[in-house]
Amino acid sequence: MAARSIGPDGNEPALSVRRVVLLIWATILVLTPYERLAALPPLTFDDVGIVAVFVGRPRAPSALVQYDVLLFLRVSGLLALGISAFAQVPRLRCLSHCFAFASVLVLDSVAKSVGGYVNHAQAVPLIVLGIVTAGQVFEEVDSYWRSRGMSRRDADRRGWSADEGVVWASGVTIVIAYTFTGANRIVYGGGSVVGGDAILPQMVLASYQYSAFGFQVAPDIIETAWGRGLLRTGFAAVTCLEVLAAGVFCRDWFRRVWLLSMSAFHIAALVLMNILFWENILLIWAVFGRSELDAAARMIGRVCPSVHEGARHGHDSGGLQLVVAAEGASIVQGEEGMASYWAVVRTRTWHKLAP
Amino acid sequence: MVASDLPGHPVILLMYVSISGVVLLVSLRSFSTAPVRWRATVLLVATLMTAGQSVDRPKLTYPFVSWKMYARDTVRPTFQRYLVTDDRGDIQEYPFVAVAFSEPRALIERVFRAVEDCACSANDPTVDSIVLGLGAIYREATGRAMMALHIYDVSLTGPTGAPGVQVLHYSWSAN
C-alpha cells in the first residue's frame, strides 16, 4: 500500500520537508570528508551524546573512527538518502530512512566530537531527519496492521498523513530553537547585547577569523555611525523576532514577515560574520513557506506554460508535481479567501482539489 | 544575580519550560486533530529540547543542544591563524574546510585548546600528534606535504579594530 505521506495518487510536493531535509544531508555528506578525521589522534575526540557509546571514550582508540568505516558510512549513508528520496516501495523507503538517519547521526557525532564546541548548524536538520524517519516508521506500522486486516482507529484518524505530522513536529523544533536563542540573548546578554554595542566586536572578529567565505565587510560598516546604528537595530529586531517565533503558527502576515526577516538575517550573518546556516534557510521555507513556494511555482507555471501544461497532463517529475500542488493551493485560497496557511499545507486538501 | 549565576537557576529553567509549553499550545491550535502518536512525538521532541537547553552541556545532550549564540557581552579579542609551509615552499592558511566543511572554526578552537593546555611553543607530544594528523589530511586534500605549521594568536587593535600584533604560539617542523 502506498504511503499516505505522498497522497492517494502517489504525488508528493517536490519541496516537501522530507525531501528538503534529505537534500540537506546529502549535500553535507557530499561536501564533508568525514573519513579524514580518522587521521587525528584519539585524544582529539570528546564524548558526544549517546553516540559516545559507539564512538568510544575519550583518549582511547575507537573501532568506529577508522578511515574505511567512516568512508563506508558516508557513501552508504548518501546512497540511503538517495533511495529514501526516490524509492516508491514504502518498506524500502522506511528501511533506507532508518539507515540514513543512523549513518548521519554517527557521522555528525564524530564531526562534533573533534570540535571545540557543538556547531548549531546541523542540530535542527538532524532532529528533523529523525522526525521524518519516525513518520516513515509510523506509516510502515500502519501498513502492517492494514495488511492483517486490522485498522487502528488512531492511525486512521481523519486521514492524518505523516506529512502533516512532519510539518508540525519540524515546525515546533524550529520555533523552540529560535525562541530559546532569542530568550537567552535577552536574559544573558541584556541591553548590552540586544540593542547595544557588544555584538560589534564579535562581527569584526568573525570577519577576520578563518572561514570558507572570506567576507570582510563588517569592519568597514562598523566604522560609520549609521552602520553601527543599523547593525544594532537589526540585531535587536532579529532577537525580538526570534523570541516571538511562535507567532508563525497564529498569523499569516507574521509568518511571512518572520520568514523574510530570518532569511535576510541568515544572509546578513554570512556577509557580516562568515556564518551561513543554509540548512536553516531551506528548512524554514520548507516548513513554514510552502504556500509561498507553491505561489512561486504557480508563477513559473504562468511564465512557462509548457511546463504548466505538462503538469496538467500528470507527468511524474518533481518540479511538475510542485505545479500540480500549486494549483490545488490556489483553489483552496480561491474558495476560502484568506485561507489558513495550514489548510494549504495539508496535502490531502490539495490532492483532493487538484485537477 | 549576574549572568554566570543564571545556568541552572529555577527561574531560568521555568522560562525554558514555559517557552516550550507556549509553543506546543500555540501550534496545537493548527493541529488539533493530530493522532496520539504525533502528539507524543512532538511532546518528546519539545521535552528533549528543553532538557538539552536546561542542562546546557551540548556535547552530553547532543543533538538536543543549548541555544545560546551571541549571548555574551564580552568576547576575547583574538583569533588564531594556522600557517602551513608545504613542500613547494608555499605558505598559506591551513585549509580547515577540507576536513571540517561545516565546522572549521570548531576544529580550530579544539586544536588551539590543546596548544593552550600544553603551555609550550614546540615539541609537545600531544600537540605534535594532532599536527601530524592535520599533516596527513593536508596531504590527502592538496597532494602536498606539510613541512611546517605555525600557530599564531592575533589580537585586534581595539574592540572593533583591525588585526594587530601576531604572537607565535606553537611551531612544528617536519625536520
Care to describe what's here?
The complex is a heterodimer of chains A (355) and B (175). Chain A has helices at 17-31, 52-55, 67-86, 90-113, 123-147, 162-193, 199-208, 218-223, 225-243, 252-273, 278-288, 290-303, 305-312, 318-336, 341-345, 347-353. With 355 residues, chain A is mainly alpha-helical. Helices cover 68% and strands 0% of the residues of chain A. Chain A is globular and about 70 Å long. The two termini of chain A are 23 Å apart. The model of chain A is unreliable at 1-10 and 310-355 (pLDDT under 50). Chain A has 3 domains: 4-120, no CATH class; 178-288, no CATH class; 291-353, no CATH class. In chain A, 49% of the residues are buried. In chain B, strand 3 and strand 4 (163-173) form a beta hairpin. In chain B, helix 1 packs antiparallel against helix 2. Chain B has a 4-stranded antiparallel beta sheet, with helices on one face. Chain B folds into 2 domains: 3-61, no CATH class; 78-173, no CATH class. Chain B is built from 5 helices and 4 strands; from the N terminus they run H-H-H-E-E-H-H-E-E. In chain B, 43% of the residues lie in helices and 19% in strands. At the A-B interface, helix 4, helix 5, helix 6, helix 7 and helix 8 of A face helix 1, helix 2, helix 3, strand 1 and helix 4 of B.
Please supply descriptive tags for the structure shown above.
heterodimer, A: mainly alpha, B: 175 residues, alpha+beta, 2 domains, four-stranded antiparallel sheet, 5 helices, 43% helix, elongated
